[in-house]
Write a structure and sequence with these properties.
The complex is a heterodimer of chains A (174) and B (297).
Chain A (H helix, E strand, L loop, with lengths): L4 H17 L4 E3 L2 E3 L5 H12 L2 H20 L4 H17 L6 H25 L7 H42 L1
Antiparallel strand pairs in A: 1-2
Chain B lengths: L6 H23 L6 H35 L1 H36 L8 E11 L7 E4 L12 E3 L4 E8 L4 E5 L8 E6 L5 E8 L4 E8 L9 E4 L11 E10 L5 E8 L8 E7 L23
Antiparallel strand pairs in B: 1-2, 1-12, 2-5, 3-4, 3-12, 4-5, 6-7, 6-9, 7-8, 8-11, 9-10, 10-11
The chains are: A mainly alpha (174), B alpha+beta (297).
């Protein structure tokens, strides 16, 4: 397997996120639900848990910086949030078992953390004026549902992929 | 109690946080212009992004076409009814256009607020964390796009250009919460001027403010851009009036407008290059802080 498969997939997911957000907001029964694709951060959490914290944080800073510059024009927001999420992930995973299901739930939990943090930041700099209840029903819950589908579909794939790379790297050092 | 940080790491973390906070405050200050590194990143990432978005849009178009074929019979029936209406309308329009041209010549008026040059563009991404309603398109400075130009779809006005780099530009949609995105509007066929200012998320409708209370606005009337803001061309369809009420102070009228264009699932848009730009900082522009005082009136 080629060496750079792990960063390549991170870049791929980075480009896929805005494609999926073209389909949002979804309008069901007169109310619109905002779905926020958080593919990159899910993948970073898997890297942090199964591979190495340091790499996850470096990828987080680079991709977060690109995300800030390209999409939201506020440099430093996601460049800070992505590494923070990776750091929290490694702190929690020390306490619990590294089973694939628990890691999936951990990823979803951290998406909630990320969403809430970005909501607080957005209301702080007054990008948004929606209330907390509207945020939870119109944005947080749909986002979690949509991302849980993604995590369910690709979580196992990420895990095997990263494991393969870890084994390969151990082979290199021997 | 486990030790999370060694001293060296703690210092590194603190320095990092300070740099990031400085960066955030620096970039919040001036979001209208992109610095050189930002432009380079936007163009490079935008190029990569279009490699992903264009196939995705192609696939959704194919699915849309299949969907269209399934409804062909119903639509055909409906359209046949409208066809005769259309033919007579077309003849009348041609006649009126010719007449208008002749009269303009008589008057000797060369500049027309309606005239614009359309630039076709493809939407390559939508801001994934959707706090701001922004899309990025694949045309930029090199294609003659400038800040504050109006962006439309076949159905009507969708937004305006807020940031331009050489090969991409960022468009802010009308459904934004940003109060500085204003569009000078007028009720079609009348002299009822107002400003499109703000968006009601719950009703998914635009709000047209500052309509003089002596004017009558009826539900169902069409609202178009007035061209008086200085940047947008005249006559772009915005939407239809659904409700009329008075504003908070009871001095001017306020109308809710159902937008003609759909703000979700945008794929192809048209940027309008108006031929006669009078004032780059008009009401349609961003630098409207000096008109802010009118809010209290």
């Amino acid at each position: 397997m080629i060496r750079s498969i792990i960063p390549l997939i991170a870049v791929l997911l980075f480009f896929l996120e805005p494609v999926f957000s073209l389909f949002s907001p979804v309008n069901i029964g007169g109310t619109s639900y905002t779905l926020v694709p958080r593919f990159v951060v899910v993948y970073l959490i898997f890297i942090a848990v199964y591979y190495s914290r340091q790499r996850a944080i470096i990828y987080g800073i680079v991709l977060g910086l690109l995300y800030d510059m390209y999409h939201i024009d506020i440099i430093g927001l996601y460049a800070f949030l992505y590494p923070l999420i990776c750091f929290i992930a490694t702190l929690i995973i020390r306490q619990i078992h590294r089973h694939i299901v628990t890691v999936m739930f951990l990823a979803l939990l951290l998406i909630i953390v990320l969403e809430v943090l970005s909501y607080f930041f957005a209301s702080l700099v007054s990008l948004t004026s929606i209330g907390l209840d509207e945020f939870i029903t119109g944005r947080l819950i749909p986002t979690i549902i949509a991302n849980s589908i993604f995590v369910g579909m690709f979580g196992w794939f990420f895990k095997t992929l990263i494991y393969k790379r870890v084994v390969e790297r151990q082979g290199e050092t021997l | 109690m486990p030790r999370f940080f060694s001293n060296k790491r703690l210092i590194l973390l603190l320095v990092g946080v300070i740099i990031l906070v400085a960066l955030i405050s620096f970039s919040l200050k001036d979001r209208q212009n992109a610095s050189l590194p930002e432009q380079v990143v936007k163009d490079v990432v935008g190029f990569g992004q279009s490699l992903f978005s264009k196939p995705a849009l192609y696939i959704t178009n194919v699915i849309g076409n299949i969907d269209g074929i399934l409804n062909t019979y119903e639509e055909n029936k409906h359209l046949k009814v409208r066809l005769s209406e259309y033919a007579s309308g077309q003849a009348e329009l041609a006649d009126v256009k010719a007449e208008n041209e002749r009269l303009l010549e008589v008057v000797g008026k060369k500049d027309d607020l309606r005239v614009y040059e359309p630039v076709q563009a493809t939407v390559i991404s939508r801001n994934p964390d959707q706090w701001e309603e922004k899309i990025i398109i694949d045309k930029g400075e090199e294609h003659g796009i400038k800040k504050n130009m109006a962006v439309i779809t076949a159905n009507g006005l969708v937004g305006k250009v807020v940031l331009v780099t050489p090969f991409t530009s960022t468009v802010e949609l009308l459904s934004t919460e940003n109060r500085n995105l204003r569009v000078a509007a007028v009720v079609a066929g009348e002299k009822t001027y107002g400003l499109i200012e703000g968006y009601d998320r719950k009703r998914s409708e635009l709000i047209m403010k500052r309509i003089d209370s002596s004017f009558e606005v009826k539900v169902g009337q069409k609202v178009i851009t007035s061209g008086l803001g200085g940047i947008f061309p005249k006559g772009l369809l915005i939407g239809e009036v659904t409700e009329v009420s008075t504003d908070d102070y009871g001095l001017t009228k306020l109308a809710y407008i159902r937008p003609a264009a759909d703000f979700s699932l945008l794929d192809h848009v048209i940027i309008t290059k108006r031929s006669s730009i009078t004032d780059v900082n008009g009401t349609d522009g961003n630098d409207t802080t000096n008109t802010e005082g009118e809010d209290g009136s």
